[in-house]
Amino acid sequence: MHELSYDVAVIGAGTAGISAHRAATAAGARSVLIEQGPGGTTCARVGCMPSKLLAAAGARAHDARQAGLFGVRVAGVSIDGPAVLGRLRAERDRFVAGVFAGMDALPEDQRLAGRARFLDPGTLTVGEDTRVRFRAAVVATGSSPAVPKPLRALGDRVLTTDTVFELPDLPASLAVLGGGPVGIEIAQAMARLGVAVSLFDVGASLAGLSEPDLVEAAARIFGAELDLHLQTEIAGAQAVGDGVRLSWTGPDGRPATGDFSAVLAATGRPPNLEGIGLAQAGLTLGEDGLPAFDARSLVCAGGPILIAGDANAARPVLHEASRQGGIAGRNAAALAASGRIEAPEPWTRLAMVFTHPQAAVVGAPYEAGPSGDRIVGRMDFSDQGRARVEGVNHGGIRIWADGAGRLLGGEMLGPGVEHLAHLLAYAIQDGLDAQAMAERPVYHPTLEEGLGTALSHIAHRIDKMRRGSMRS
After folding, report:
1. In this structure, are residues 62 and 74 in contact, taking their beta carbons and an 8 Å threshold?
2. Are residues 137 and 158 in the same domain?
3. Domain of 185, in residue numbers
4. Cβ neighbours of residue 426 under 8 Å, at least 6 residues apart?
5. 128, 217, 401, 461: which one has the fewest Cβ atoms less than 10 Å from its Cβ?
6. What integer pLDDT is reported at residue 464 of this predicted model?
7. How far apart are CA 174 and CA 468, in angstroms?
8. pLDDT at 447
9. Residue 365 in contact with residue 395, Cβ under 8 Å?
10. What is the pLDDT of residue 370?
11. What pLDDT does residue 381 have?
């Protein structure tokens, strides 16, 4: 058995793991990065980038079909499925190659390849013949797609985000299970590329939205392009010819069936924690198999172990994984040297969905029912100037603030939301109130004016409340 010793061992060479190794090394620790495969990061290989490439192709097809709105006549739009997917994979592979190039640039004594497993709180094995002793370790093992129980008997007939981008051609029809960010992005893109898409979800909302008006708007907008089955349970699945037959029960309780060329499971990505020996590492595990850990320092209860990125299931998005990796790496180096760890405040929550229109959730979540002293600002894109110019006037904005006007959070569904959501996140992070944010300069005509409308709505309501209090 080959014996190695490090200050810090980082398990997993995805976004969080690479960031953790870099941070630990920069802090002066002797660190090793253990790649368990297949590598390339979830974002570049099967997540952010390939899904956006598919969405970009779908958007071009949709824009061509809708060009008549502007008096531009397009004779016809045809989709070359193999070409669409060929470009997707070529660009995807380019992004992945960049990640691998960074890995290859690491000194050989800072990287290992193989399956890692804890033997005790200070030792793990890598592969069959390597034992690594460490003073602190970072678990950054990422996540894998979940397959709902009714589909498991179908084996590799079930597509996941790990396999759907390997299709040689677009299917004639596709059932998508899951209306969250990944499911709705792929479903809409496929529909715009000529695939007959049916989307199923046990819930009533799409794209991670929860504010009732926006939930209703999303169902209406996406339902115009997709065959939507919300509040629907999949009861069974079977192989039929080259395709799949699904059976389900809708909100009315009636059973139904349908045949599809392919089915995509997009119902989440649980952490890759099974089989790595967390209990042997001395960690306190919950019923879900996740270790108890401090959300700020990322230090696990029970051992000198930290957990970052998708592996802790807290905020499974790239910018959070990168930040968490940095925190975990620095803290691992501190633990290895008996130093002081850091516990920074979490970033303002920021989640986006790159559909058309886009969706975003920022800051504190929506609260149903009585909202106490919360004040909600509203804006509708249907008559917003720039949105109407571009022919994308769908959706709206909802922003909530406390009784003093301090911004807390919001949800958005509309054009340019990826930019508007960042502005709101920065304002929340900086502790701004609605009036102060509304007084920032905004150029005309831009979509940012729509954000200003919602902010001014809050400021107007607060001013009205204060005037009422003064009169009384």
Report:
1. no
2. no
3. 149-265
4. none
5. 128
6. 83
7. 56
8. 97
9. no
10. 60
11. 98
Strand pairing partners for 173?
Answer: 196
Q: What's the confidence (pLDDT) of residue 369?
A: 64
Asked if the structure places residue 301 within a domain, the reply is: yes
Nearest to 237, CA basis, from 152, 178, 173, 160:
152
Tell me, yes or no, whether 205 and 89 share the same domain.
Answer: no
Domain-ending residue, one of 242, 265, 288: 265
Q: What is the 3-state secondary structure (H, E, C) of 105-136?
A: CCCHHHEEECCEEEEECCEEEECCCEEEEEEE
3-state secondary structure of 212: helix
State the Cα–Cα distance between residues 98 and 13, nearest whole angstrom.
Answer: 13
Do residues 265 and 148 touch, judged by C-beta distance below 8 A? yes
* Distance separating alpha carbons of residues 48 and 92, to the nearest angstrom: 10
pLDDT at 103: 83
**Contact of 35 with 111, CB cutoff 8 Å:** yes
Q: Please report, in angstroms and rounded to a whole number, the separation of the first and last CA atoms in the chain.
A: 82
Residues of the chain with pLDDT under 70: 369-372, 468-472
**CA-CA distances (angstroms) from residue 253 to 175, 233, 235?**
20, 10, 12
Q: Could you give the C-alpha distances from 440 to 345, 412, 443, 447, 455, in angstroms and in order? A: 26, 20, 10, 14, 11
CA angle 343, 347, 353 (to 5 degrees): 145
Question: Crossing angle of helices 81-104/15-26, nearest 10°?
Answer: 20
Enter the pTM of the model.
0.94
CA distances from 238 to 164, 258, 277 (A): 19, 11, 36
Asked if residue 437 belongs to a domain, the reply is: yes
CB of 141 closer than 8 Å to CB of 12 = yes
CA dist 433 and 429 (Å) reads 11
In a domain, 224, yes or no: yes
Domain count, the chain: 3
Identify the CATH number of the domain in which residue 203 sits.
3.50.50.60
The secondary element (H helix, E strand) that includes residue 40 is none
User: What are the phi and psi torsion angles at 263 (to 5°)?
Assistant: -135, 135
Sequence-distant (6+) residues with CB within 8 A of 345 are 296
pLDDT tens across 116-140, in order? 999 999 999 999 999 999 999 999 9
Residue 56: strand, helix, or coil: helix
Q: Is the peptide bond before 145 cis (omega within 30 degrees of 0)?
A: no
Residue 344 lies in a domain: no
- Domain of 390: which CATH number? 3.30.390.30
